[in-house]
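Support request, priority: normal
Reporter: lab tech (M.K.)
Component: structure prediction queue

Hi team, I submitted a job for Methyl-accepting chemotaxis protein from Pelagirhabdus alkalitolerans yesterday, and the status page still shows it as pending. I've pasted the exact input below so you can check whether something in the sequence is tripping the parser. The sequence length should be 603 residues. Please let me know if I need to resubmit or if it's stuck on your end.
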Amino acid sequence: MIKKLKSREKKKKPRERFKVSRFKFVKKNKKERKQSKRMSPLHNMSIGWKYGAAFIFIFILLFLSTVLIGWSIQESQRSVEQLERRGDRAVFVTELSAQIQAKALSANTYSQFWNQTHYDDYMEASEEVNQLLDYLGGELNNHTQEALYQEVLDNNYELDEMFEEDIADAMDEPENVMSIYSNRFNNLASSTSLYLEYLRDSILEERDEALDDAHSAQMLAQTVLYSAMLVSFVIGVVLFLLISRHVSKHLKSVVTVSDQIASGDLTVESVSYQGKDEIGRLASSMDKMRLNLTQMIDQIKQTSNLVNTQSEDLNQSADDVRQGTEQIAATMEELSSGTETQANAASDLAGTMKAFAEKIQSINTSGETISTSTSNVLDETHSGNEYMNRSIEQMGSIDAIVKQAVSKVSGLDDESKQISKLVGVIKDIADQTNLLALNAAIEAARAGESGKGFAVVADEVRKLAEQVGESVVDITEIVNRIQLESKAVSEALEKGYKEVAQGTEDIHATGVRFEAIEKAIHNMTDHVNSVMSGLEELASDSESVNDSVQEIASISEESAAGVEETSASAEEASSSMEEVSTGSKTLRKSAAELDQLVKQFKI
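Reply from support: The job had stalled in the queue. We restarted it manually and it finished. Here are the results:
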């Protein structure tokens, strides 16, 4: 009845644990849902992608900076090109002014000497002026310069017209008319040179403005370059610091949890990180390992308590059986002494009956002695019968106790097999933990410098798994020894049970024979009484009495042999109970050692 109540309590405990764990699981899911709402997409990115995103962002900034710098350089290049073109225009204007002066000089020289060479010089200078004017016409870009250019162009046209119509045809004209033409020509050439001087000043002003623009473009390019480099550097440093702080913070929490688990504290809360990156997967694996270790240690603790209780019960039963066998052995010794006395008395009675047959004539005188002897024999036989009945009851008790011990040892053997299965489960969990530590070490090696701390944690987890594996090997050896001891005890108990059963049957046979002896002695008493009443009847029945006495002697000897066998069986049962007691003590010690190992963990 007590065992049934214990089994019901054991069946209730897992349900209670399931309710508590389910309540914790619901609270945990609510907490995870709240955290998942606040979780940013950064948590779902791997650490490599986080740093990669930072590099990509910095590269984008550098690309934008390069674009801005390229634009600034193009603007500076454009300003330099404009400066070069304006410098060329200033040179062309200066050369144009010189050609105009050359035309005026050639015209004046021709008007004085009327030499064809001077005429050709004028025409060559005029052609050069026209080419320069054509080039400058496409390079001017404001109204002032275009107006000055138009004045120069008109004056040049008038100079050529004046040279062709007035000076070239005035060879026969008076000197004063020639002087008028020369003065008009020189004045117009001077006016044209003045216009060209204005045009050159305007072009030089534009060149100065272009120089200022080029200098400003260079300063802008330098400013953009330095600003872009500074901004890219600052943003890159800030991004790397934020990412490193994010990774280091959550890695520290994972390392803290793993250190507490390694120290045996399984009550530590799980890591509150719901990302899908390497840290999230590591936190999830650490939480699963903690839950599996908690369940495993809880089951080991329950099994240890059960083994401890069963070993105590077995030890108590073995003590009871041992005490019973000792009492049976003492009773058998007393019974053996009584049966030996009875056998001796039967032998003496046989001699007496033989003498009675030989001395049939003296029976009458010794009848009183014979009557007294038969009364004593009847009393001894009655006592022997009572001892035999008590021996039968004791053998029945021994039979029940040995049968109960065999049943308990068989149950112990089944429980030890369950422990072997549990040890196999623990070994599988230890192997999986070792494989998880190896995978974690590989991931830490891939992470490089940022994974060194995690590699240390993975190494500690691997060492813990190896320690658990070594403990599993020790537990397996202990359980195997317990199974061997329980098997040996079970075999010894079964052998003792068979011997006790055989002894019980022998004692029953001895009791039957004692009843026959008692009946025969009663018959002998009746015969003695009949002898006392009539010697003739006693003489005729002396042979029958002699046969009965011989049968009593043989039965007594058989009873003595059966009692000796029963005593030997009781001694064997006692030694077997000693072995059972020793095995139960060893089992209890092993259960205590297992309980000490389990107490190293906090659940």
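The longest helix spans residues 175-262. The two ends are 31 Å apart (CA to CA). Let us know if anything else looks off. Ticket resolved.
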